[in-house]
Amino acid sequence: MKHSFLDQYSDRDSLIHRLDPRSKLAAILAFIVAVVLTPSASWLVYGLFFVIIATLIALSRVPLLYILKRSLVIVPFVLLVAIFIPFFKEGEVAGSINIWTWQVSVTHSGLQVLWSILAKSWLSILSLILLTSTTSFSSLLRGLERLRMPRVIVMLLSFMYRYMFLLTDEVMRMKQARDSRNLGGKRLRQIRTIGNMIGTLFIRSYERGERVYTAMVARGFDGHSRTLDNLHFSLTDAVFVAGLGLALVSISLFSLLH
How far from the centroid of its chain's Cα atoms is residue 71's Cα? Predict the structure, then answer.
């Protein structure tokens, strides 16, 4: 299977790709905080945030269609959580829906909150896709470690990303073996087979974890990942963080004043 899940375009060369992972992490975090703290229905402010993230995407040279496809994946999950807000938010009634004997009303303020949540979620996911598409996962982990994130969390993230693909390959091999031996049968028999596959996968994962831990201890692993590439915070990184921070502060002040 293809093992480029998050950082598919991280090997390209652009201004955003060459930035230090720490500067990109700090900038994206500041961007998300500014977007989340923006008042509801501030459409002009959302438009300014979109201009910023669109400019960064253009500078990164990551395919626009790839970013759009991945960003739209989050919309159904946001709708699943926020779809009921227009029906429970108090305010001026925008319309009513008759469901059997109930009359459900939709308010203007609830619709504004719903569209604001969708806008904030989409802008935030765009920034995260930009971060992961322009930075390899190992570089992100090094940046998180240098930013003083607990080493245990960094190590767990590293193992999760490394062995997620191995477990997926294991599941695909088990599925292929099951399909080659499948002679049909009742639904109960198929469910029992899937249950046995899940139990086998758990046992194999546990045994693999024990073997990996033993091998790491034998090689003197102390919880710190060492690589040949050292992070370097350059003048370009400082200018990038300062410029983006100034833009976000200016937009936030504009939102508060208006």
Answer: 9
Q: Check residue 182 and report its DSSP letter.
A: -
Place 221 in a pLDDT band, splitting at 50, 70 and 90: confident
Q: Which tokens hold the place of 113?
A: 């909150």
Alpha helix positions (H), 73-186: 74-82, 85-88, 108-134, 137-146, 151-181
C-beta neighbour count of 171 within 10 angstroms? 13
pLDDT in tens, 33-67: 999 988 887 889 999 999 999 999 999 988 888 88
Taking only the tens place, the pLDDT of each residue in 58-111 is 999 888 888 888 888 888 888 887 777 776 666 666 666 666 666 667 777 777
> Which two three-digit tokens encode residue 77?
């999950």
Helix (H) or strand (E) holding 258: none
The CA radius of gyration of the chain, in Å to the nearest whole number, is 24
C-alpha distances in Å from residue 246, one per residue of 123, 143, 243, 249: 18, 22, 5, 5
In whole angstroms, give the CA distance from residue 114 to residue 41: 9
Contact 70, 50 (CB under 8 A): no
Query: Minimal CA–CA distance to 231: which of 15, 3, 14, 24?
Result: 24
Q: Please name the residues in contact with 204: beta carbons below 8 A apart, sequence gap of 6 or more.
A: 170
